[in-house]
Specification:
Order of helices and strands: HHEHEHHEHEHHEH
Oligomer: single chain
Helix content: 40-55%
Structural class: alpha/beta
CATH architecture: 3-Layer(aba) Sandwich
Number of helices: 9
Strand content: 5-15%
Number of domains: 1
Strand order of the largest sheet: 2-3-1-4-5
CATH class: Alpha Beta
Number of strands: 5
């Protein structure tokens, strides 16, 4: 069979096709009336990460902004179902979801991440992947006593009984953010007020038109 040789016209066609397919970030911003950002909500289990994330999502959608929530429930059922809860698996979990957030940001979306993400190094890696300008660390600063009282899935009870190994806050560490962009004391703050504060931050920081 005769092999095909690429010539200069083929290369020019490929290059023009590549340029044609490129869409500038500003074009997406103009259409969506927003700048992409990642709100990275971190905190203990029971601190209200997913609850606040969902309220933020609803508020932004109501204002006409395109956004999406990623949390442990929707990624561990598919993308990360092969991962456990060892320190190594937790790091890989965060790396993968950060890469997903980066892609969604590149598509112009505002991404709301709700992950315990217990290690500073893991959160810093996420910042590097997503980009300093788009990464907004939000610490849900809730005492473990309040988290345990909430505990809708009974996870703390099981962890205290030794039924769940490496459970953050009980038999695995949580490294508190040293300088989060936003600190939410969700023991005293309702989910609606916490979400309102995050939406206001996005607006005041120029992410929302």
């Amino acid at each position: 069979m005769e092999s095909y040789r690429f010539n200069n016209s083929d290369l020019l066609e490929a290059e023009s096709l590549r340029i044609f397919r490129e869409v500038a970030e500003k074009e997406r911003q103009r259409i969506l009336k927003q700048r992409p950002a990642t709100l990275w909500l971190t905190g203990l289990s029971g601190s209200g990460k997913t609850t606040v994330a969902r309220v933020v999502e609803r508020k932004l959608i109501a204002q006409g902004h395109l956004c999406y929530v990623l949390d442990g429930d929707n990624v561990r059922q598919g993308l990360n179902r092969d991962l456990g809860y060892t320190p190594q698996d937790r790091d890989e979990n965060i790396r993968r979801v950060a890469e997903v957030a980066k892609l969604l940001n590149e598509a112009g979306l505002i991404v709301i991440m709700a992950f315990i993400s217990p290690y500073r190094a893991g959160r810093e890696q996420a910042r590097q992947i997503i980009g300093e300008a788009r990464f907004i660390e939000v610490f849900l600063d809730t005492p473990i006593e309040i988290c345990e009282k909430r505990d809708p899935k009974g996870l703390y009870v099981k962890a205290r009984a030794g039924l769940i190994p490496e459970f953050t806050g009980v038999n695995a560490p949580y490294e508190v953010p040293e300088a989060p962009a936003i600190r939410l004391k969700t023991g005293d703050l309702s989910a609606d007020l916490a979400a309102e504060r995050l939406c206001r931050y996005l607006k005041e920081s120029g992410f929302l038109d």
